[in-house]
Predict the structure.
Amino acid sequence: MVAKVLTVKPSQMPRPVGQVARLLMRKRLAVAESLAGDLDDPEALHEFRVAMRRARSIEKAYRPYLADVVTRKLRRRLKAVVDATGAARDTEVQLARLAQRRVDPKPHHRPGFEWLQQRLEQRLEAEYAELRATLAERFRLVHKPLRGRLKAKRDEPRHSFAEVTAGLLLEASGDFAAHCANILADTSEEPLHIARISGKRLRYLLEPLVAALPDAVERVRKLKVLQELLGEIHDLQVFGMELAEASEQAGAARMRKLIELSLTQPLDAPELELARQQDERAGLMSLARELQTRQADLVEHLRARLRAGDAEELVAGVRLLARECARAGLTTEPEHGPPA
């Protein structure tokens, strides 16, 4: 199943912004609805997550024009559904990275790898059980009222979708350029995180335009290159926090087991010697070093791209696209009939 990027037709660009924004939200929620009954399938869950994230991105971008449609209560419910799928996704990514590392482990790393895999698999099972039990109903509670509100006719503002989107593109691209510049000036993790979020906002504005504005395809492609770097760096940061927490729990559990065996077994008991040998810390420390090295390499690669002007080139292209977008809103008279 391929993620659906639902787009705006050229004829819709001059239409009132609220009308087109409601249509985009409605279509994305319809994709999510088609997947809501199959959320035990990891691929379906991924596509559901993507559809919901895109629906929420439309609401956030065009909020002033959707304020009478998406109430504060529905906005909170929409955010909660999106957030609910995030933990399972992080666990899946961590298990995939661990699987790559476990192909041929050193003997003294194996206990840590096996312990961590069991921990992540148990967590993922619990997260999926929670999603299967609650997510479809939580989605229904937000989709049922939203579907009707998104279909209802409204008094439309005079601004066209193209006009408003052109302004949003200029704003979002400027923010992204500033945050990318901060990555070169600040070596902490925060600028990377902020730039990643800013890049997602810009991409979600660009993707619906690829049918109406063909140049948007290339802008999305270039943005994805930077986004993938920022995304993997973020995943490594999250996994690093997981390893820090896991190491504390592994150490405490191992010490408890050693003490319990020491209280019940002689000092030369095979069980006690085996417990001493099964130290998870070596494997966890090995993973932590690899994550740190990989993250440093990715950050340096990202900074090299930024120093080479990748962000500036992208932003310049988006600004040209914003002008093209604004002109697209003037090609015909705005249509005030029902959306296609």
Observations:
- The two ends are 25 Å apart (CA to CA).
- Residues 42 and 98 are 18 Å apart (CA to CA).
- The chain has two domains: 1-159, 160-327.
- Residues 333-340 have pLDDT under 50 and may be disordered.
